[in-house]
Write a structure and sequence with these properties.
The chain is an alpha/beta fold. The protein has ten helices and six strands; from the N terminus they run βαβαβββαβααααααα. It has a six-stranded mixed beta sheet, covered by helices on one side. The structure holds zinc ion (ZN).
Length: 341
């Protein structure tokens, strides 16, 4: 018998009467009903379906059937599938699985996979081992986006079944299964295809990730500081300097490539912390003007927070320590290119 440890065990009457199975599939559902008590629903005398697991939006896991017992939720796959019901609020498209639900789904899938030797991969057919979702075979032309003409499915008697909905199907493929199989990117890792192109005025987590990368204030709003950092980063990476972070620049954020090779002898290298009060004022101002223009900013005598951001962007792009300090290394690299080593 197979019961998952550390979860609520609330067996249905069918747990004693359904036949023994050796499951090879895991099929995920959504309840499409707000505030439903699924164990109570499955107990109703006029309801002849049941599921092995129930995961609420708060992430609480209830096991209602031993996974060696058949649960009737998947038509022809009833004798091969472990079924997982998930709570929604009646709008599974508008409200994706919560973070707690995702964590619990990952736990259940990992446990079921290791207990029954089920591979954590998408089922290649309706009878192949693996993980799937209820409507998987209902829309053969576009099973993820549920588009096209529905066909009769071996996993449901209802024509045009959409369970668990496009949003949750995407979450299953993009988040839950990679986490369960251990192939997910680390949380701050580079998953390029999920990143939007960001530019002046953009907001959100991609902008924030970029700001963290440049070690500038990470309010998630792409303003003058972020733009300054992006431009000098692009310059140092040999990209076209447009201040827009699209696939090419994101690619370099993940994997910096070229080394800055500017060669100029117009200015002598000068070791100075431009934010230090020790330089002579006129000298400081002249150098700051030069520095700002080298950082692609107006030639102002003030080393502003935007200059600081631009310095950090350059340091990132040139592979230097990112501290916003224009010392010997940054100054030398900016004016003479990276030292050979
Ligand atoms: Zn379903």
């Amino acid at each position: 018998m197979a019961r998952m440890p550390g979860v609520v065990w609330d067996p249905l009457p069918e747990n004693r009467t359904e036949p023994y199975i050796n499951p090879s599939q895991i099929i995920v559902h959504t309840a499409v009903d707000g505030n439903v008590n699924i164990p109570a629903y499955f107990r109703r005398r006029d309801v002849f379906v049941e599921s092995h697991f129930w995961i609420t939006r708060s992430g609480r896991i209830t096991q209602m059937m031993d996974t060696h017992r058949q649960a009737d939720a998947n038509y022809r796959a009833n004798n091969s599938a472990i079924s997982i019901e998930t709570e929604d609020d009646g709008d599974p498209e508008g409200n994706p699985w919560t973070y707690a639900q995702i964590q619990s789904l990952v736990r259940v899938i990992k446990w079921a996979a290791s207990t029954h030797g089920i591979p954590i991969q998408r089922c290649r057919s309706s009878t192949a081992p693996g993980v799937g979702w209820h409507s998987m075979w209902s829309y053969p032309t576009d099973p993820i986006n549920l588009r096209g003409r529905p066909v009769p499915s071996p996993w449901t008697t209802a024509l045009g079944k959409t369970c668990p909905g496009r949003t949750r199907i995407r979450q299953l493929i993009d988040v839950v299964m990679p986490l369960a199989s251990g192939t997910a990117d680390p949380p701050d890792g580079g998953d390029d295809e999920n990143r939007d192109t960001v530019r002046d005025g953009s907001r959100g987590s991609d902008v924030q990730a970029l700001q963290k990368f440049f070690k500038i204030p990470d309010d998630g709003i792409f303003g003058a500081m972020t733009e300054a950092a992006v431009k000098t980063f692009q310059m140092a990476q040999g990209l076209s300097v447009d201040g827009i972070v699209g696939p090419k620049t994101w690619g370099r954020v993940d994997e910096p490539k070229s080394v800055y090779t500017k060669q100029t002898s117009q200015y002598l290298p000068y070791t100075i912390w431009l934010r230090s009060p020790y330089a002579y004022r006129s000298q400081y101002q002249a150098l700051t003007r030069i520095l700002n223009s080298e950082l692609l900013l107006p030639a102002s005598p003030v080393f502003s927070e935007i200059s600081d951001a631009a310095t950090r962007g350059f340091q990132r792009g040139a592979g230097l320590t990112v501290d916003g300090m224009v010392g010997r290394q940054t100054w030398g690299t900016l004016f003479f290119g990276a030292p050979d080593d």
